[in-house]
Every structure is written in C-alpha cells, then in structure tokens.
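Review form for a predicted model. The reviewer records the input and the model, then writes brief findings.
Reviewer: anonymous (R2)
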Amino acid sequence: MRLSLFVACAPGLEDLLRAEVLKLLGPRKKCEIVPGGVELTGDERAMMRLNLELSLASSVRLRIGEVTAKRFDAFVRKVSRLPFERYLKPGAELTVRATSRHSRLYHSGAIAERVADAIQIHFGSTSGGKAPAEARAPVEATGDEATGDEATGDEATGDEATGDEATGDEGTATIVHARFVDDVCTLSVDTSGAPLHRRGYRLESALAPLREDLARALVVASAWSGAAPLVDPLCGAGTLVIEAAMMARRLAPGRGRRFAFMDSPLFDAAAFAEICASADARALPALPFALVGSDRDPGAIAAATANAERAGVAADVRFVHASLSDAPAHWPELKAGSALVSNMPFGQRVSRGKTLVALHQRLGSVVAALPERPAVGLLVADRKLAYVTGLDLHPAFHTKHGGIAVHAMVG
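Model under review:
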C-alpha cells in the first residue's frame, strides 16, 4: 500500500534526518524537509524500516487524510468517512491529540473529542452496528496556539520539556494526531508508540542527561569517521559514547522494542522479521578500536557502565573516573578520523560565569596539547563559550535540550 509518511524529529535536526532517511531508503528517494521533520511516501516495509533503523527521528506518522471544515458538525461527518479501518483495528485503545492555528475550529480539546466521536461513528457504520465502547478514544489537548510545525506543538514529550529520564513505557494506546491549519485538518496516526529516541537502555542517569537522538546528532555532525577512537571527557551517563558505539557497529536503534504499528492492520510479522534479520546481518560483532568516556563523578561512571551493558556495547566502550585534566591519560591514541565529543555543562551541573569559562578554556588546552587534533563536537548553550576553547569551531545545528536552546559546535 502506498503510504504518506511524516518522520518527526527535534527542531533543527531536519537536514541530518533527511540524509539518514536517504541513506536508509536510497539516494533517489523523494524526501522533503518540512519544519519538524521530513515527508515522504513508502510502503509498509519502508514504514517498518524507518521505525527500526532511524536514529535521529522521534516518531513516524502515517497520514490518514485531510478535511476542510469550519463547523464541528461538518468536521465530524467528513472525518468519519476517512479510511481508518486501513490503519486502526476496531476497538483499539486510542489517544487523540489536537492542535489548531488560524482556523475557525480553534479549541484543541473540542477538536480531539470530535475526532474520537468520528472514529467511533466510522467503526460503527463499517461494522454494521454501534461501535464498541472501547472505540471511544481518550483525548488530549495540546494547546490551542500551536507553533505551526509538526513537531513542536503536539510532538513534545515529557522528557523533552523537563530533561527527566524516560522509561520507554508509553502505555498501549495508539496516538491519532489532528492538526488544523487555515481550516484544513490533517489526520495522522503514530506508528512508533514510545518516542524513537527512547532506545530502552538509558534507565540510569547523571545530571542533565542528553537525549539519545541529540547525542547521535552531535556525533554525526562532528564528522567522526566511525572507524577510529572517540572520547568524551565529560561523559555523564555515557549517552554520547554509547550512541557512537551503536552507530559504528551499525546496530539498529529500535532493535528489541515494540512499535505501535505492530498492533495495526498494516503489520506483517513475517516481513518485519525479515527486516530485523537483515538489519542484524549488517551489524558488526565488535569494534577494533576504543571508545572512552570519563567523568569526575563516580556515580555517573556507574550509570554509564550499566547503560552500556543494556545497550549491548559494554565490550566496545570504557568508562573511567577522572577529571578533565587527567582524562587524556586514559585515552587511546587519537589519530586521523578520531573525535572528541561532549555535552558541555550549561550552568545546571556547575556554577555559571568564571567556572564555565575556565572549564571551556581547559578543554581547549587539553585538545591543543594532543599530538594530532581529532574532530570535535560540543553541545553548548552559549556559543561564546565554545569560542573560548580557542578551537576552530562552527555551528552545525541548534535545537532544544531540556527546554534550553543549545548549539552543536563542530570543527
């Protein structure tokens, strides 16, 4: 079946996500960047591969259809005629999320309720009788004033806003999105379930944990070769090093987890098993070089070690208790293709002002003293601090981390 897909990501990662989609599905695939993600068409196999193998996406949505409406009675009637039976099972537990911008129908809670009603009407009519009570979907209002892009209004999750660790448990409800813009409502269904950046391994954290998709984006933007050592001198819970190891070993980010599409009429178990087997066959059994993270907090090292074990890369990484000044003594030789990446403190982990300046100056001195300069990727809240390092860095992308605007500086 030809499917219209929207792959959502954190704002600012759209270019990197498009490159990843094209690497996965082929360079000739038509893939358009839109605010908050990319749009493309594909079949069920493409949809399943995107969920399993994308590392920079937060969700894969399947577009059900569009309706134009200025009154709720017409809205319910038109929505009830959409082909929900292709994408949802009758009686499935649903959550409806709605946003509205520049539309006569502006109340997101009322829009979500009407979509739930329309889905119940649809399955009642297609089954030849009244829909079961389970078809009445819970609704979730996500704000009447959406920002206009796909990802930042109804895509934000709790850990994006607060920085809290996620367990990966999103419940069993399938999410239906209703997005009104200029009196046109686009209906889509989330095929992912729990956000894709929740790989399932990061159950223990240090201060200011970095989301997995942002960690992967920084590693990619740093231009690390993936074939030489990588180090993180301020590793925290180890997310950057773990994501780098998974990337170098070509491990599918979604391996071992469930997806919402597995409970839909689109799911072909045999085809998905084949896709998973193919992804596993491309993975490397081990890395012939070292990836090292260090931190002055012994609790962070313990968390990073446990996370690496759950991620299946414990044999590929090493975490050591060391200060920034002492860290180079534990590093492998950094040669051509190597990288140093780090999620720099924003003021939450250490005091602001002179302390942060001194930390960035020290990092610059550490890199400058190396026999051969590695590629560098730093995530900072203040670009001026990146320049304090004295390294030749330039912006790669900017996004939000824990509600704070941050910049990836690479060079």
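Findings: Confidence is low (pLDDT under 50) at residues 128-136, 143-170.
Further findings: The chain has two domains: 3-190, 212-252+283-410.
Recommendation: see findings above.
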